[in-house]
Input
Amino acid sequence: MVSKRLCISRLRSGGLITNYYCSSACRHCLYRCSPRWPRDFISSEETREALETSRRLGCRALHIGGGEPLLNPGGVASVLSTAQEAGVTIEYVETNASWYRNHETACALLERLAAAGLSTLLVSISPFHNEFIPLRKVRGALAACRASGISVFPWIAGFTPDLETFDPERPHALEEYEEAFGSDYLPRLTGRYWISPGGRALETFGPYMEQIPVRRLIAKTKTGCAELADTSHFHLDLYGNYVPGLCAGLAIGRQDLGSPLDTEAYPLITRLSTEGLGALLSYVSGEHGFSPSKERYAFKCELCYEIRRFLVIERGVDSCELRPREHYGTQEKQRD
Output
């Protein structure tokens, strides 16, 4: 029986996920965004309620992320306007620059968004994004920002020389970077790019990491996963979910923030937050017959994700804690 209850009572710094649909499927993506996701975008009502929740719990500034928000520029403009009305500052909007066509149309788009409240654009610059987005588009988006008076948050400018090694007119696979810079290029990226051990990063970087026995992973979290209570970089999404910590695929209903979580409604998160990975493993093994597929894992998050995906895909569990379901590959399962 879980004796303590997680309570998200104050939000510090975070963002609004307007959509999970994306023009890319980057190998490090925490949220597993891709073109396979539904083309849903946050509604005006959901935007207002998310902003009100953020303000109520102490956070008056958010960023906008995805997915690729600028696949729906009208939706972004609506979010920016609503934020101004709600008294919430939008610090920046994230983009991979896939929307760029030419200088004139890009400037027109940015000027429209500036009128709605856009001040800064975070432009992704990395080998991960270059697998899908040519450097030409990134350069074009940066130039359009300068011409339109939009500040740029380059993430990360230090990768520019790497990208400039290749033809700027087309995308380039990570394998091309390994050929150019060495077979250890991919694992070295973890020292140059902040990567959370979740989403596709589990498969991309797990094979390069030390493989830790399950018993050691459990021992490390026996007092609970503190990340779930961390609100230093939180996210609220278009479906009314609050993502605890950076644990993509786990969700707390926005309406349940500010009060201790009900242990019956949130049996997975409450066990993880207070008793750790061992309690989750014991619970899901007993209730649903789960067994780890390996004896060793690179990250505790890798085993946690395997447990959660087992519940969604293998057992068909429909839980408010395991949202959005597409994070676990249900969109691929439906289309295959």
Observations:
- Strands lie at 14-17, 61-65, 89-95, 120-124, 151-155, 212-213, 234-237, 241-243, 252-253, 296-297.
- The chain has two domains: 9-194, 201-227+260-336.
- The mean pLDDT is 96.
